[in-house]
Amino acid sequence: MKHGIRDAFLACLLLAVAGAASPTTADELKEIGCGKELVKDGGLPQLVVDDKLHVLDQTRIDGKFDPGPPPSGYRITSIFCARSDIVPAAGDYKVVEAGYPLTIFARDPADKGRTRIAVLELNGGQLRMRSVGELGFTPEMAHRIQAFLDSSLPQFGKVSATR
Q1: Smallest Cα–Cα separation from 44: which of 2, 105, 98?
Q2: CA 75 from centre of chain
Q3: Which letter does DSSP use for residue 160 in this model?
Q4: Which of 57, 81, 92, 147 lies in the 20 to 30 Å Cα band around 66?
C-alpha cells in the first residue's frame, strides 16, 4: 500500500502543479483533480488521473457516488483527489459508502506548502479519517474532521462496503 500512496502523491502533486492551486480556506474548498487506483488481477496498482471524475460535484447532489466503469480487466480499489483543504467535504462519505477509500492530498500554506495526505475509509464498520503523510492534523483540522464525521454518521448509517 505504501507504493500506492507514493504514486497517488505524485499524481496529485502533478495535478496541483498543473492547476497552479493556491491554498484557500475551508469555505472555498477547491478540487484540483481526481483519479482512480486501478488493479488488474496479479498486477500492481496503477493510479490514473480521470478528468471526468469530480468527487465534489458528484457528492453534492443526492444519490450514490459512481466513479464510472473501470477499463476492461481492471477493478477500482480507491479514489484520490487533490484539494485545497484536507478536511472532507460534506458529501465525501458517499465515496466510502460506495465501497472506495478516498485519499485526499492538500498543500498546507502554514507549513511551507508541504502536502498533507489523509484517507477517509471504513475501519471496523466505522467511518474514519487518518493521516498517512509526514504531517499530521493540526488541532483545528482535527476539530473540523470530527465535525464532518459527526455530521456524516446519521447519513452514512450502516453500510456494507461492496464494489
Answers
A1: 2
A2: 17
A3: -
A4: 147
Domains located in the chain, CATH noted: 2-155 (3.40.140)
C-alpha cell at 41: 488481477
State the DSSP code for 109. G
Whether 120 contacts 96, CB under 8 Å: yes
The alpha carbon torsion through 90, 149, 136, 23 (nearest 10 deg) reads 10
Amino acid identity for residue 63 in this structure: G
Q: pLDDT, tens digit, for every residue of 32-76?
A: 999 999 999 889 999 999 999 999 999 987 778 999 999 999 999
pLDDT digit string (tens) for 82-123? Answer: 999 999 999 999 999 999 999 999 998 777 778 999 999 999
Residue type, 50: D
Backbone angles phi, psi at 104, to 5 degrees: -115, 135
Which of 90, 91, 120, 93 has its CA nearest to residue 104? Answer: 120
DSSP string, 87-99: SPPTTTHHHHHTT
